Amino acid sequence: MNTNTADSFDAFSPELIAEIFSYLPVRDVCQCSLVSQQWGAISSSEHLWRNLCKEAWKGKKGWSGVAQLSVDQVASTLISKNTLPAEKLAFSGHASWKLWFIVSHKDSQRTSVTTDDVFGDWILHIGINQKCDPIRTRFESDFSFFCENTGALKWEVVGNTIKLPDSPPPLRVKRTANWGWKLHCPYSAFYQV
User: Fold this and answer.
1) Which end of the chain is more exposed for a tag (fewer CB within 10 A), N or C?
2) Which CB contacts under 8 angstroms, 24+ apart, belong to 19-25?
């Protein structure tokens, strides 16, 4: 029986261990931090968490390009898009990729829409019973809504719904798998571009 208590990973460089950790689910990476001080340091490394962010944010609405920024630029981006209030950043004390991973995960689970989330281009799909090509639409920051079929209309946020004129019922809000938004009612659905 081998009584050597040395970590069997001691033969590997910290870079190689970090590479192995990058293939693990995030929950397991966090558990690795409890194994030893060396693993704790590796599982908390900025390089590892930046790679985990890049992988998690790949193809996600509003996040895919963020991993190319510096850790401080990410803070500015999140504050400007109202994902992270400036006062919360001050309390965190230290901006890190692990923090941004957590913030992005929490944001992906958010189900209440802000006006900033609504501004921009959308694709409108008319109900199941009608055969209609998708229609490009746009929600503007001045609360106007443009669609080639209707021209310009006004819209408003009512609770956690979007109300368009002559459009009962209001559009309900739902998150999509790619962290985007879907605005829908029984007759139509808007998907964020």
Assistant:
1) N
2) 21/48, 22/48, 22/51, 22/52, 22/55
Tell me the pLDDT tens digit for each residue of 69-106. Answer: 888 888 777 777 655 555 555 545 577 899 899 988 98
Contact 143, 154 (CB under 8 A): yes
Cα(135)–Cα(123) distance, rounded to whole angstroms?
6
Name the CA dihedral angle for 170, 164, 109, 88, rounded to a multiple of 10 degrees.
-130
Q: What number does CATH give the domain 8-109?
A: 1.20.1280.50
Distances (CA, A) of 155 to 134, 137, 161, 165: 20, 13, 10, 7
Q: What is the pTM of this model?
A: 0.79
Q: What residue segments make up the domains of the chain, in order of their start?
A: 8-109, 115-184
